[in-house]
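FAQ
Q: What does a multi-component entry look like?
A: The components come first, one per line:
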Amino acid sequence: MTSTEATGARARVGGVLASWERWLPWLLLAIALTYPFWYDVWPFTILTLDALGLELDVVIFMVVYVMLALGLNVVVGFAGLLDLGYVAFFALGAYSVGWFASDKFSGTEFHLLSNAAEGAAGIHLNLWLVLLLGGVITAIAGVIIGWPTLRLRGDYLAIVTLGFGEIIPDVFRNADKLPVPGGVQAGPPFIDFTNVNLTNGVRGVRSLDRPGFGDKLDSLTAGALPERFSGIELKPWYFTIVFMVLIAVFVIRRLERSKMGRAWVAVREDEIAASAMGVPLMRTKLWAYGIGAIFGGIVGAYYGSFIGSVFPTSFSFAISILVLVMVVVGGMGNIYGVMLGALVLEYLNFKGLQKIGDGINNAIDLVGIDQTVDIPRYKTLIFGLLLVTMMLLRPEGMIPSARRKAELHEEEDLIEPDVYDDLYDVRREGA
Amino acid sequence: MSEQAATGGSNLLLELDDIHTYYGSIHALKGISLNVGEGEIVTLIGANGAGKSTTLRSVNGLNHPRRGTIRFRGEDITTKPAHEIVKMGVSQSPEGRHVFPRMSVHENLEMGAYHRDKRKPEYKEDLERVFTLFPRLKERESQKAGTLSGGEQQMLAMGRALMARPSLLLLDEPSMGLAPIFVERIFEIVVEINRQGTPVLLVEQNALMALDVATRGYVMETGHIALEGPAGELKTNEQVRKTYLGED
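Then the predicted structure of the entire assembly, as tokens:
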């Protein structure tokens, strides 16, 4: 058998690429890379601003969620591990900026390649380093949490991760009075606890540092690569997150085609068989969980810096669910699907519903009825309906992965009843 | 090789010494000792629940024994994780086949060679070998494994196990649920695989067929080895004939 035959066999299984699938990603990439230059130019504004309200900050939030959905897709879509606590990694990443690039620890003064003001109190690392550090911290957290919990299967894993996602914001809320052993004292209880403030509790950590490219590049490029990103000029922020997504897509596509990617599919399809083939189950799952965590952490750090402050209330359970819905609605296991899911849903979440509401209210006003409806208030209801409708009509998502689609439309392919019985067992045990 | 023993007249490949395996608090294996030598087909027969599959699960690391030792080529593998054992050259076709239903036949075979370098010529050779043993798999190469018939899935499970180029092949109930014509074909292939140089440990309920192809056999009863000996002797043994071959 020649290698071309093998590739051919694989391509047929994966479904033949339609011609639009070939050029569409490049078109979208071109749009993404040029958007800040034409979105506010007439006549494009008719669509971008007037109709859709796609200001640059809205788009940045959308792309932040694209990154989150890509990360969660590795865990849920590739390895089949249902993670309901993904927001925890997002939060940890954001707080990394609070710890390592703000005046939070004002008792100390430590600067490393930072663009913070000379002599500013607190730990100030270069923000690019903090982005990576956010990834490292969440990777470690991912391994610590994954090690005991990934032995659980299906629903049990979902419940434990859900708990973890709920606990992390609570920890941040309460970690302003963290009892830490301060030393041994004479009388009982023998250990002297001192309160340590790690997170400022509900008050959050404010005035986080921003990334920048140093004064040399700033003057060389006449401010295109600014020394310090500003809250007004959003282009550098936009290109940073788009660049991060491009790297993520590249890395994830490589992973998907790697030995590890194949092992994820095997574990997802049938743990027993995977193990019999010599796939180390724990290590394989832990990699998926850890990689998902790293993406969450890095984008969390970016988000923290972009918002400029972190609060425990910013990281609610609803975010875990929203990202999961993006993955499911977009097309679990297909990176383009989950990116589309994230763009659409975060747009609706952040701007779209409000726009729709405005449209409806204007129409009502024209008809002459003196009433208004507040569409964004029904957000949860609308997303719930969207999810249910999607599950009924197109459970594989907007852009499905070929394999995932096969899993959901199994009975349509299988003719022999005895084969189907076997599959049922396999599926049940693998679940 | 650390030990040379005379059992079966060959070098010992796999040795189980007084294995006790539990499922939770259930004492499933109560002191199993058996061995497989180079070049042999050894069969493990017995009724449902006798502990045949548990014995295999102990060997391949899916359910470690609490007591006793398992040695493969003299090396203690009793508590080694499953993937290490596969790497050492013990590969298996699990009970109930467990093919990856949504992967193509080709992808399933690729999974079998998970630990091997697919660019090396040996990989292609083995793929050829599997397709020669199972021409049906070649015909269905790009088809999804879940759409194959039961017999074809069994062939795939065996072919997939062979893709690891094992030095010991574990087969768990390869004839289960198959049409008689397929059962015969499967056993012919087991003999052929063995003839090409791979020792086989064969767990079977179809005692008659298993003893026909095997060099030696062990008869299991509720967690013990009740009888052992050359396959020919077991086949004529009064007790075996009564209990397992359905004769009065």
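Q: Is there any commentary attached?
A: Sometimes. For this entry: The first strand of chain B starts at residue 12 and ends at 23.
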